[in-house]
Amino acid sequence: MDLEYRAIDRERTPFGLLELRHYRAATGEEGYEITLDGAFLMASHGSHAERAMAGLAYDRLGERRDGLTVLVGGLGAGHTLRAVLDLDGVDRVVVCEIGAQVVEWNRRWFADANGQAVDDPRVEIEIADVTAVLQAARESFDLVLLDVDNGPGWLASPSNARLYGASGLASVRAALRPQGVAAVWSPAPNPTFESEVAAAGVGFERVDTTELGRREREPGSTIYLLRSS
Description:
By secondary structure, this protein is an alpha/beta fold. Helices cover about 30% and strands about 35% of the residues.
């Protein structure tokens, strides 16, 4: 499908240049997307897997389903955040986003797609590297949902590799409360990441979202679900 693009805004971050672009197809379909140094990150369309992360992780929690605190790594277009806020029992959501302007883009350009999620009173926005936030946390979160790259093997920034290695996985595990669950988005199965998870002694489950995506005419993705214990 041929698309016409128009740049609307940009922000320089420690990881590169974020750009907000409007797109329009010949069919009349239109929306917005975010890129980093020209590489696609997130858009108002194509959100089935980003939304599914929240429910898949939630379904694997232990018996405790109230007073939940959730960490969302990467705000993007707000799809995952919206799905978290729609879960029962969620009291607090910490969103780590490296680009301050992305928050304003959500308010102005993605509000229709995510139901004005960033302005929900349960949401706390931290303009920070999610790796640093995880390293400082100890048994702080019931759910940790990570979508800060185009998957563990397709990094938005080379420095993010540490998030998916031994030290990053240890931080994720330590940040989870007992019986907590982490979810990591990936466009496809990633054997290297699976080896890192296994070497770290973390139990994991790989979920193929192809069936979910088919309902919305979107390609399937992979969601990795990691348990704290």
